[in-house]
Every structure is written in C-alpha cells, then in structure tokens.
Design a protein that fits this description.
Blueprint (H helix, E strand, L loop, with lengths): L2 H22 L32 E2 L7 E6 L9 E6 L8 E8 L8 E25 L1 H9 L3 H7 L10 E10 L7 E8 L6 E24 L27 E3 L7 E5 L9 E5 L8 E10 L6 E26 L2 E5 L5 E16 L6 E10 L4 E14 L18 E5 L6
Parallel strand pairs: 15-18
Antiparallel strand pairs: 1-4, 2-3, 3-8, 4-8, 5-6, 5-7, 5-8, 9-12, 10-11, 11-17, 12-16, 13-14, 13-15, 13-16, 13-17
Length: 417
C-alpha cells in the first residue's frame, strides 16, 4: 500500500475516533454564579452573641415593639433561619436584616440578583427584599478598616453634611401575604460603573412576623438595553389599582404619619395613594411615592412625569419631581413644577427634564413636604419620553427657590367618593 494512502486511512480513523469520543463524553457541568453573601443560610453564629448570625446586621429602631431572632424551629434548610417581628406601626419604620457587600470593577455593568426564601406569619403590611447599588466610599473604608462609619468619616475628614454616598441602583420586591409557606423572592439591579458597595435588605413594614432563609446574591450578565418607546407610560402600576407595590412608599418616622392605599377616593378606577397625619415632625423632609429607573436608557432624552393631585386643607407644597443622578451625585433635577396646597379637587401636575449624558439612575417622585397639616391624594401617574433633549450635557444641579416657584391654592373643600 502506498505511504500516502496509509496516512489518509490513519487520519480518517483518527477523525472517526475523536467524533465518537466527543459524542460519548458527558457535558461539563455549568459553574453556578458565586454567592457574594456571607453565611447565606444563617448557620454560623456570631461569637459571643446568643442569637445573632455571623455576617448579618439588623436595623435599629429603638422600639420595644420590634423583635429579631434566629429560629431553629421554622426553617427551610439547614438548622437555622432568622426572623423579624413587629407589633406596632405608631412610628412608620422599616425593620430589616441586612448585609453590606463590597464590590469593584468585576461587578460593573453586570446585574446583581438577590434571591431569598421568606415565610409570612400574621403579616399586615408590606414585606420586601431590596438590593441597592451605591458609590459609598465611607462605608467601604469603614469595612476595610474595621471601624464604625462615623470613625471612617472622621479619618477621611468628611463632615456629615458632605457625605458623598450616592445611590446608583435600587430594586425592591414587595409582597403582602398575610400567611404563606416558604416562597422564593427575587430582586435584580443593574450595577453601574463606580459602584463600590451593594446593600442587601430583607424586612417588614407593618406588623406580624417574617421568616428568612437561604439567601443568595450573585452577579449575572446584563442583557442589552431594549429601545424605549416614546409617548408610552413607563411606570408600573401607575394608577395604584394593583396595590401600589411597584412603588417606593416614603413615610418619614413621624409619630402617626400615614401612607395608605385608599379604596374610597380615586381620580379614575378604585384606588389612589393617601398621605395624612404627618404633622408631628421636627425636620422638613420628603414624603410620597416614587419609582427608580436605570438612567442609561434615558440619557439624552427629554422626559415628562405627571400625576393627578387632590388636597384637603393641605398646609404644605405638593408637586412632581424628576432627579437624574450620575456616579458623582445629582446631575440634574426638574424645575418649575406647580406647587399645590390648600384644598383643591383633582388637578394634573407635571414636570419635564432633559436627562443629561452620564445619568445612571433616575427617580420619579410624587412629593409633599412634611411635616404638615392636611391630607393629600395622588392618582393616575405617567412617565414618558417625549423627545430628544436639545442639550444633554451634564450641568450643575439647580435649587428651586420659593420665590421662583408658582403656587396654587384654592378654598374648594373635598369629600371622599
């Protein structure tokens, strides 16, 4: 047999053998994303403490009606779960288990996925899982140095009023189950360039007990941005008919202050949001509802937010506001929205903003300034892209002065429908 023909036969046999081996070889197992949380199953205890799990922290309310614990009876997996219980809503506060995760460039441009199993016992109010992306160098260095946040700020010569913490991403999943078996909850947030800390919070705003087990925080690839349609309402549950759980409910910790879903007063449909009993506070702050958006999708666009407001003896200003934030803080905010106060029937209010380049995080707010007397309802909100911004370059944030803002006050009283 000629040598060249022999070589061809050997090569052919080798190819057949390789194909057979490749067909018979099992597929390699896919590597699961790494869990960034410490002690995700709450199995390890904190040295010198009776019930605190290692790696986790709890919110501080200073109230005797709030209880945290590590449970060995009601668990989903392993030997332990944790729980938080509350018996009073006199002061509107969020009570949660939390963990701080330091991240770097490996997280930028990816999506942080928080998943956790929860069980509700006698829950009245809203429970939630929340993941936040921050540029917070003070917190980061406090962890690196092993000191408190105030000590870290002093080492860095940063005053409290100059604290450079910036929220760059925010995702909360809320649920109202009065009682449930173990249910898997999930929240996902895009991690912008510049993020150095991720905060994980799992808790309760209301009364009852929430049990928590088997948590995970992992980084996943971020899908490409989908095109954003113009003149389309981008808000979730804009008319609050689904219970308002897609919104952030912002209630300052003033005694008796209330943010409620109202099923008796509405502009359209059967629901609105009501803000009341917010008079007992010492400092002025925001109160209202808001939704966050990933800012990259809106950079270079002109956006408009609007909603219908109704007031009863409201002795403060209420308005619509849009904030655009970049990695270094506030880039721009909407100006010139009408300030509504007094007693008035349903009135549409709106604000527009040219979203600057470099925007990473966008907030749409329906706000009133608290503390204040009176009651405010909001309903039928809308947030949409209305065109391309004429100049999308970042500009210093401006502050609206009272003298430069229009104000609407009427004497018409309102009654519930």
């Amino acid at each position: 047999m000629p040598l060249s023909r022999s070589l061809r036969i050997v090569a052919l046999l080798a190819l057949v053998l390789c194909a057979a081996v490749a067909h018979a070889a099992p597929a390699r197992p896919t590597t699961a994303p790494r869990n960034l949380l410490l002690n995700p199953g709450f199995e390890r205890g904190f040295e010198g403490h009776d019930w605190m799990p290692a790696g986790w922290d709890t919110s501080e309310a200073g109230l005797p009606t709030v209880f945290f614990g590590r449970d060995s009876f009601l668990v989903r997996g392993g030997r332990f779960a944790v729980n938080v219980a509350n018996t009073s809503t006199l002061y509107p506060m969020s009570h949660n288990w939390s963990q701080t995760v330091l991240v770097g460039r490996e997280a930028w441009g990816r999506t942080a996925v928080l998943s956790v199993w929860t069980k509700s016992n006698g829950q009245q109010g809203r429970a939630y899982v929340l993941v936040q992306a921050y540029r917070d160098t003070v917190t980061r260095m406090a962890r690196v140095w092993g000191v408190g946040r105030d000590d870290a700020r002093r080492r860095m010569s940063i005053n409290k009023v100059d604290d450079p913490a910036v929220d760059l991403g925010w995702a909360r999943t809320q649920f109202e189950d009065p009682n449930s078996d173990w249910v898997k909850r999930e929240a996902r947030v895009y991690v912008p360039v510049g993020t150095n800390v991720l905060f994980v919070r799992i808790g309760l705003m209301g009364t009852g007990q929430l049990l928590i087990d088997d948590a995970s925080l992992a980084l996943e690839a971020t899908p490409p941005l989908a095109p954003m349609a113009r003149n389309t309402n981008l808000l979730r549950d804009p008319d609050f008919e689904a219970g308002g759980l897609a919104w952030e409910w912002v209630t300052p910790p003033f005694e008796g202050a209330r943010t409620d879903l109202d099923r008796t007063v509405a502009h359209n449909g059967s629901a609105s949001m009501r803000f009341s009993s917010m008079r007992d506070g010492l400092v002025q702050t925001r109160m209202g509802v808001c939704q966050p958006f990933q800012g990259r999708a809106f950079a270079g666009k002109t956006v408009r937010a609007s909603a219908f407001f109704r007031g009863d003896s409201l002795r403060t200003n209420s308005y619509v506001k849009i904030y655009a934030q970049g990695t270094r803080g506030l880039l721009a905010q909407s100006l010139g929205a009408e300030m509504l106060s007094g007693s008035f029937d349903w009135t549409e209010n709106s604000a527009t903003l040219d979203v600057p380049k470099g925007t990473e995080h966008l907030w749409v707010w329906l706000i009133l300034n608290a503390p204040a007397e009176g009651t405010l309802w909001v309903d039928d909100a809308k947030f949409e892209i209305i065109g391309d911004a004429p100049d999308a370059s970042p500009a210093p944030a401006k502050t609206t002065t009272k003298s430069a803002t229009s104000k609407r006050t009427t004497s018409k009283s309102t009654t519930s429908k």
